[in-house]
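FW: tagging you since you asked about this chain on Friday. Here's the raw sequence from the shared folder, copied in full. Didn't touch anything.
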Amino acid sequence: MAVTAIPRSPLLDEALGPGGPIVVFDGVHLQFDDTVILHNVSFTLKTGHTKIFLGASGAGKSTILRLILGLLKPDAGMIFVNGERVDNMSEDHLMAVRADLGMVFQEGALFDSLTVRENVGYKLFEESDMPLPEVNRRVEEVLGFVGLGEFIDRMPSELSGGQRRRVAIARAMTAKPRILLYDEPTTGLDPITALTIDEEIIKLRDLESVSSIVVTHQLRDAFFVAEHFALRENGRLRFEKASGTKADEAEFIMLKDGSISFEGNASELRAAAAEDPYIHSFLN
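HL: got it, structure written out here
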């Protein structure tokens, strides 16, 4: 009896092709007992671009990050990170993939007993054979990037909430990962402080070509990240409104009950709100 061939997924071809996306979800499904967490979720993240995940609590946003890190395994579908399939990868092999991932947690998750220098350089101090002077130079470099060079020998308890988040971003980028994952990076911060975190996300994307996935409930911050870009001219840093193809480098994904109900840029999201009650209620 002839066997009917299963069509090859276009996303799979894209994931494995030269210059393919840096993250690919292809038909990912996850459930715990009878509760569906994600259903047939497919998307791609291009190098140097941003995906911003929105949705109600429990929609599956943070689960996306755990799947990328390999902390959860899907029940169906495939996940690729840097061209490697991670959903069926062993823990030993995942360690190598995670070396190219940086994670910024909601509360910063700094070690209270370590200085800013020790927090930022922790991964290099503990997990690499980089000479100590080189580690210190890298720590100083990333702290300078986030504007906290003078705080290098302070303790986390001496920092404001916004400064702790920026230290967490510096720590995540110390090993020069190509992908940064942000889990509610501005929650609990006042609007002015949150803006400094938004600008760090934009700077890393536009000046360092870091690909980013942002999970957030904060619409003001989400739209700022999506609609602005950073450039440095004559040594001066500027943030400007994105337009044209630049505006398409950051896209929103709206999750509803574990499925993607919308994917597109900021302008398309606003337009969709006029027709979709779920999106309209979320944006308002």
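FW: Residues 1-7 have pLDDT under 50 and may be disordered.
HL: agreed, and The longest strand covers residues 35-45.
FW: great, closing this out.
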